[in-house]
Amino acid sequence: MAQIILKNIKKTYDPDVLKKPVLNQLSLSIEAGEFVGIVGPSGSGKTTLLYVMSGLEKVDSGEVLLFNKPLSTYLESDRAMLRRDLIGFVFQFFNLIPNLSIYDNLKLANVIIKNKGLTIEEALNLVGLKDVMHKYPSELSGGMQQRASIGRAILGEKKIIFADEPTGNLDYQTSLDIMGLFKELNQKLGITIVMVTHNEALLSYTNRVIRLLDGKIEKDEKR
Ligand SMILES: Nc1ncnc2c1ncn2[C@@H]1O[C@H](COP(=O)(O)OP(=O)(O)OP(=O)(O)O)[C@@H](O)[C@H]1O
Ligand SMILES: [Mg+2]
Question: What family does the database annotate (predicted)?
Fold first, then answer.
């Protein structure tokens, strides 16, 4: 089942019509359970594509369907619920709150979601941080902090994780470790993962690679 469908998306930030759109008549479809890598030069529109897919950014024209329903037909409250309960985000910087323990970081995130799925304890177990959950972010390595932010992203019953250069701040070995974790979550929980990366070596963990160039899909390969 297609979870994300983009139809002829055009997206500009600058209202200047002479400027090239960031996404230019882009169409794609992502199925439930895929692990998609998105690559492309800096400025090719990767982050914008993630924001458009998740409904964080509006498009100029074209249509975005999430879970088989056009985003334009969701009420604003439903769109917020969707982003809160069904979609998780992971970024290059871990965005953990420094004066809260790892457990409390997840607890805070859990307050706002309608948690019917993975509990804080289950999420911490899955990302392998049960033993250090009472430590503060600064007491953990970068890789462990990213594990914590992934734990936070999977709380509840998330269907899709969007990750924007999740290993951009980590050394190579730790990057492989984080990719292994994504792969495990993808396979064990069936969560769809859409990940932007600059590191070609990490693409072997994905099932599909989409290459962006100038706001268009240059290549889309399934493995
Ligand atoms: N909020 C914004 N306002 C105006 N222009 C923007 C905004 N966000 C991105 N852009 C522009 O849109 C283009 C695509 O940006 P985007 O961040 O999507 O690229 P990217 O592929 O993620 O690049 P990088 O690899 O550097 O992260 C760039 O030219 C950028 O300057
Ligand atoms: Mg980017």
Answer: Belongs to the ABC transporter superfamily.
Q: Which of 24, 46, 200 has the most ligand 1 atoms within 8 A of CB, as the residue to mutate?
A: 46
| Lookup result for tokens 């914008």 | 48
Closest CA to 206 of 217, 219, 216, 197: 197
CATH code of domain 34-46+76-222 = 3.40.50.300
Task: Check pocket membership of 22 for ligand 1, CB cut-off 6 A.
Answer: yes
Segments making up each domain of the chain, as ranges = 34-46+76-222
Which pLDDT score is estimated for 175?
Answer: 97
Q: Is 11 in the pocket of ligand 1 (CB under 6 A)?
A: no
Count of Cβ atoms closer than 10 Å to residue 109 Cβ: 21
Task: Output the six-digit token pair for 113.
Answer: 């979601």
Please write the tens of the pLDDT for every residue from 125-152.
999 999 999 999 999 999 999 999 999 9
37 lines ligand 1 (CB under 6 A): no
Distance of alpha carbon 62 from alpha carbon 42, whole angstroms: 24
| DSSP annotation string for 4-67 | EEEEEEEE-SS--TTSPPSEEEEEEEEETT-EEEEE--TTSSHHHHHHHHTTSS--SEEEEEET
